[in-house]
Design a protein that fits this description.
Elements lengths: L3 H33 L4 H10 L13 H11 L4 H17 L3 H25 L21 H18 L5 H24 L5 H27 L7 H4 L15
C-alpha cells in the first residue's frame, strides 16, 4: 500500500502541477492576445535585431561555430528527432512492463503534435521577415512547434524516467536535463531567425501546460490502478517484483 507520507507528497505535487498548468495556460492566452493585437512587434523586433550584426541583418552575432552549434541543437526539437526519442522511450517502458505508461507517453506526444498544428492554423502568423532565416522553414510561426513539442516530449519523458528512480538527486538531474534541452531548443529558434520570441514563449507555456496536464491524468489513473506505480511508491508492496505485478493488468 502507498504510505500516508507518500500520499501527502503526491497531493502536494498535484496542487503544484495544477498551478503550473494554470500558469502556462494564462501565459499562453496573454501572449496570444498581445500577438493578435500587434502589441508585441516592438519587443519581438528588438530581440531579433539584437541577435544580428548591426551592419548586416543576415549575419548573426557571435563566432562562426556558434551558428553551427545552434543548427545542431535546434534539430533536437525537429519532428524526426522527437519521433525517434519518443519511440525509444516507449520501447523502454514496454520492456520494463510499464505498458500503460508507454501508451500515455505516445498519447501525450501525439496529442501535443495535433494541438500544435491546430494552434498554428488558428493564429496563422507568418514567419519573421525582419532578418534572414538561417534554416529552411515552411510552416506557420505561432506558437513555435519546436519549443512546444520539445517541452511536451522531453518533460513527459523526464517525469516518467525520474519516477523510475528512488534517489532524489537522480530525479533532479533527469528533470534538469530535460528542462535545459527544452529551453535551449527554443532559444535557437530565435537566434536562427525562424521564430519571433513570443512564438517561443507561447510554445513553452502551452507545451509545459500540456505535459503537466497529461501527467496529472497519469496520476489519476494510477490511483485508480490503471497506470503503474513509481519506483518509490512501489517499495514495500507485496508481489511487486513478480511478473504479473503490473497494476491494472
Amino acid at each position: 500500500m502507498i504510505s500516508r507520507r507518500t500520499l501527502s507528497r503526491i497531493e502536494l505535487g498535484s496542487v503544484v502541477s495544477l498551478l503550473v498548468v494554470a500558469g502556462g495556460l494564462f501565459g499562453f492566452i496573454s501572449i496570444a492576445d498581445e500577438v493578435r493585437e500587434g502589441e508585441t512587434h516592438g519587443f519581438d523586433s528588438a530581440i531579433l535585431l539584437a541577435l544580428r550584426s548591426a551592419a548586416d541583418p543576415a549575419d548573426p552575432i557571435g563566432p562562426h561555430w556558434l551558428e553551427g552549434m545552434m543548427r545542431d541543437i535546434t534539430s533536437l526539437g525537429g519532428t524526426a528527432v522527437l519521433t525517434l526519442v519518443t519511440l525509444v522511450a516507449v520501447g523502454y517502458l514496454v520492456i520494463e512492463r510499464k505498458r500503460h505508461a508507454a501508451l500515455l507517453l505516445a498519447i501525450a506526444v501525439g496529442g501535443g503534435t495535433l494541438l500544435s498544428s491546430i494552434l498554428k492554423l488558428g493564429f496563422d502568423r507568418p514567419r519573421p521577415d525582419l532578418v534572414s532565416r538561417l534554416v529552411d522553414v515552411q510552416t506557420l510561426s505561432f506558437p513555435s512547434g519546436h519549443a512546444m513539442l520539445s517541452a511536451v516530449t522531453y518533460l513527459t519523458i523526464g517525469v516518467l524516467l525520474a519516477r523510475t528512480s528512488e534517489r532524489r538527486r537522480v530525479k533532479s538531474y533527469i528533470l534538469a536535463v530535460c528542462i535545459t534541452l527544452t529551453l535551449m531548443i527554443g532559444l535557437t529558434r530565435v537566434y536562427l531567425g525562424v521564430h519571433w520570441p513570443t512564438d517561443v514563449l507561447a510554445g513553452w507555456s502551452v507545451g509545459a501546460a500540456w505535459a503537466v496536464l497529461c501527467w496529472q491524468v497519469a496520476l489519476y489513473m494510477q490511483k485508480r490502478g490503471q497506470v503503474e506505480a513509481s519506483a518509490t511508491e512501489s517499495v514495500g508492496e507485496p508481489n511487486q517484483s513478480a511478473p504479473n505485478a503490473e497494476i491494472g493488468r
